[in-house]
Amino acid sequence: MNMHSPTITARAALYLRVSTARQAEHDISIPDQKRQGEAYCEQRGFQLVETYVEPGATATNDKRPEFQRMIEAGTSKPAPFDIVVVHSFSRFFRDHCEMEFYVRKLAKNGVKLVSITQEMGDDPMHQMMLQIMALFDEYQSRENAKHVLRAMNENARQGFWNGARPPIGYRIVAAEQRGSKTKKKLEIDPLHADTVRLIYRLFLEGDGTAGAMGVKAIATYFNERRFFTRDGGRWGLAQIHAILTRTTYIGEHRFNTRSHKDREKKPESEVAIMAVPPLIEREIYDAVQARLKSRNPMVTPARVSSGPTLLTGICFCAKCGGALTLRTGQGSTGATYRYYTCSTKARQGKTGYKGRTLPMDKLDHLVADHIGDRLLHPKRLETVLASVIDRRQERAEPAGSILPS
What we know:
This protein has twelve helices and eleven strands. The chain has helices at residues 30-43, 65-74, 89-92, 96-108, 124-157, 193-204, 215-224, 237-245, 282-294, 343-348, 360-375, 378-401, and strands spanning 11-18, 47-55, 83-86, 112-115, 170-178, 181-188, 252-255, 272-275, 324-330, 336-342, 357-359.
């Protein structure tokens, strides 16, 4: 659509975004962006047809539901709007490469991005200025993130909680007031502390009827006795293992252990240690780590294999939809056997879900034979071969047509 035609009204969509609730307290709150955006459209005679609101989303990546919904609409044919209006270009993106990608993607479909506070023309000079602004927004975003993380690390080192849900066995309490900010700490939660202590005791000593339990046995023990998680759910292997390995329980909560963007582990020098009241004695914790290490599949013969297999990741349980994972075990003769089992069963134990277990060789052969019968059928091979020959001839014809006679 020609937006400059005097007889045609340009259709506009507003995109409103804030990163955090704290940001919403300032002059770029959602209501303020909306008010300014509507006034902008009215002044220029744009018809406002859609508003996309993105509360609490970063602009450093495109993992934003409303943003993606807007892009999908803006690149559809025909697009329901001609212009995307933002308060500033940083509301759209804070990564200059990603911003350029999406600006071009919209432009290919005749949709233009405009800013209320940063007016830009269509000439090359203004386009260059837009890219410079995007670079500055990206730099500013990274600098802000760096300063915020530095402050949060220092906050943790002083023993204050930075937010998020505390580990089971702890609760958040107000510690002191600094100006308008309430500093918070962790204290032992009497409601769930005994659950943590019981997990450690079961792992080292058992319940008195048998010896020490493994992670899976503890999950089964809890689920059989209807000991629910603090959310009222069933226990899984990952939850039990996390409790057994978390240093928080010996008074050392580790903050900033992984990158927020890609979840990669950070160097130990960047980790901040926050002091909290210990729930478990260090001697008990060390004994648990030693036993976990002795049972580590990388040290002792594996019971769970993570190596390449035919069906891992592509074969699923018909009842619960859980992926089938490869496990190994030893028979009475000492021979090792391999089998697929439902990941839900492997994670929660037999009490969590009675999933099926199948010999690996048997299932692999069944699937391979079926694929062979379908894909390697003589008639199918004949069709594929004929198609390949036709394509080769098509490629050869242009080359042959320019050869001298």
